[in-house]
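Entry for the shared binder. Reason: the reviewer on the internal report wants the predicted structure included alongside the sequence.
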Amino acid sequence: TRGVDIVVAVDNSGSMQAEDFLPNRLGVAKETVDRFVAGRPGDRVGLVVFATLASTRCPLTLDHALLRELLDDVDFAPPDETGTAIGVGLATAVNRLRKSDAKSRVVVLLTDGRNNRGQIGPEAAAEAAHALGIRVYTIGVGGEGDAPFPVPGMPGHFIRQEADLDEDLLRAIARTTDGRYFRATDAAGLDETFATIDRLEKSEIESHVRVLYAELYPDLLV
């Protein structure tokens, strides 16, 4: 096929439990990524999740069915990882693309917060992406004002906390890497991003495929 190499970095910190979107912010983020992957059949896509730490859930692959299963399994980070390390998440995604020989390489980063953890600053990670020729598209998740957060151990009980989405930072990251920032609920912005990535130069991509056959003729013969 011919396509683009893309790594999606998803924030799964505790603040993503807020229910200003239904079912919650993480659910909306996963729906956005799922729609994104469904619209990229010819691209290799990978998945990184981050909170206080970052990890790769899926390397670059054309097996989008597997990728979407792994995305569906993404849950909130453990209670002791409550921070948001945007710089570390971005750096991990950029590192996954560092050795890619594709002509166009892209990171799509989704978060609802403000960088407050990690030894790598978002600005430094963005500069590294720019130096490697990687574009970063940032997506802000969350509404305006305060939002209802579930109280741990008390199902059905909520407290209200002020949203802390650092849109200026997300815009700066996108601007540094020739990408674009938009909100997760902005369908027009999402479609425009799809179209922008479609216009990027594509590379030939090869992938090994194993086909498992199940012989059904014995049942029919009987």
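Summary line for the report: The mean pLDDT is 90.
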